[in-house]
User: Which sequence fits this backbone?
């Protein structure tokens, strides 16, 4: 019964860790998306460059997110 | 307006047949096994099986052909993987017995005994495995395909500056890689040296990701060894074509006080390794996670055995498959762009900060 609790606790904490990673990645990419949209609204002719930069930053954050998720 | 609608309907029905193919495979798999097996473990086994690399090319239940197995076990042993009989039989060759267990080949005795140690790890001996598995054969097929298509396109430029046929689709992409990925990151002086690698890696990753979405069951970028080799090539190219300023910035960063320089040096050195490592993880995790989600949702179709649940799961699977198309191209673009960024930082000229 003792080890059973430890196993359950392990799984619970793993799930909690995965959830935190996803929250972090989601917040980061959301912030980038938001500021990208504001920038596009200010200057619509720079849309291409802003989109490119936004995709790059999003991919970098997603990279960290996935790495942490796989480690968990 | 009507034309666009027709195009979308055609697109929808093309992908519809893709999913019906996968459904057939799954159904046959379900019908074959014993009736006591829970359908959830069925789906889990199916997903795990699809993510692994197999030694034969298995399209449907009837159509499959074996690939050569090349082992190094005190001498080169080459035999056909049909002796393994989809993992059920023990193959015998030159007096050695081999058995496939969870996709890997182990040396065993005539009965096919697999011994475990305390941690449930297999303790049988493993010979060095150089065989042409499904992933390896697919890498070879895609590389030949790329060589053929692009050499034909290059030859056609000798006679005619405007390409015809498929070259019309490829030329803007090649120019995009040159003008928007290579030149802004590497600079006009040195970009030509790296163009061949950037183009190769861009098209290779894109084509292989696209093929991973078809029901053929090939998933090359699912394999971390493949993405590892791509990232290692990027790392080697940055290391061996870097100029003095690159190394100076790593080991002895100019413009900061001396104690900071000593602290920064190991961190920067670690950074050179972590950057290609993140390239590897990013590509592998994106594609693998996408495939796992997609196959799980298709499996969900079989867990819900009523009309509403299955059709909704199918709609969700369709939407996620479209997203996977975007992810395929995006990951190729990101890998290429980050590689170009690292190359650019390697050949950057000195400028005053």
Assistant:
């Amino acid at each position: 019964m003792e080890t059973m609790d430890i196993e359950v606790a392990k799984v619970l904490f793993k799930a909690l860790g995965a959830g935190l990673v996803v929250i972090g990645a989601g917040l980061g990419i959301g912030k980038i998306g938001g500021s990208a949209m504001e920038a596009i609204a200010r200057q619509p002719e720079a849309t291409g460059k802003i989109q490119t930069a936004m995709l790059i930053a999003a991919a970098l954050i997603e990279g960290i997110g996935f790495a942490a998720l796989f480690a968990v | 307006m009507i034309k666009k609608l027709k195009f979308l309907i055609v697109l929808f029905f093309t992908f519809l047949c893709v999913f019906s193919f996968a459904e057939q495979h799954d159904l046959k798999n379900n019908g074959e096994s014993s009736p006591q097996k829970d359908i959830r473990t069925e789906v889990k086994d199916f997903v795990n099986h699809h993510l692994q690399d197999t030694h034969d090319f298995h399209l449907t239940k009837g159509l499959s052909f074996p690939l050569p197995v090349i082992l190094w076990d005190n001498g080169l042993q080459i035999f056909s993987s049909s002796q393994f009989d989809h993992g059920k039989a023990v193959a015998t060759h030159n007096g050695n017995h081999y058995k496939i267990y969870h996709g890997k080949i182990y040396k065993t005795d005539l009965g096919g005994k697999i011994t475990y140690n305390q941690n449930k790890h297999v303790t049988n001996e493993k010979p060095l495995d150089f065989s042409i598995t499904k992933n390896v054969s697919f890498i070879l097929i895609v590389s030949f395909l790329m060589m053929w298509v692009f050499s034909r396109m290059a030859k056609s430029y000798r006679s005619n500056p405007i390409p015809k046929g498929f070259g019309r689709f490829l030329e803007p992409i090649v120019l995009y890689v040159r003008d928007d990925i290579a030149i802004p990151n590497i600079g006009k002086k040195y970009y030509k040296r790296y163009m061949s690698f950037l183009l190769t890696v861009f098209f290779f990753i894109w084509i292989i990701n696209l093929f991973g979405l078809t029901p053929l069951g090939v998933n090359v970028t699912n394999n971390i060894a493949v993405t590892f080799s791509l990232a290692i090539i990027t790392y080697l190219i940055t290391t061996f074509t870097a100029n003095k300023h690159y190394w100076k910035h790593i080991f002895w960063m100019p413009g900061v006080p001396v104690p900071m320089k000593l602290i920064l040096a190991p961190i920067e050195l670690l950074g050179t390794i972590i950057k290609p490592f993140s390239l590897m993880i990013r590509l592998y995790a994106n594609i693998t996670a996408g495939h796992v989600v997609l196959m799980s949702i298709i499996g969900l179709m079989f867990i819900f055995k009523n009309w509403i649940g299955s059709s909704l799961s199918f709609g969700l699977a369709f939407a996620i498959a479209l997203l996977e198309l975007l992810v395929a191209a995006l990951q190729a673009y990101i890998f290429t762009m980050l590689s170009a960024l690292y190359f650019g930082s390697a050949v950057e000229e000195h400028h005053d900060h």
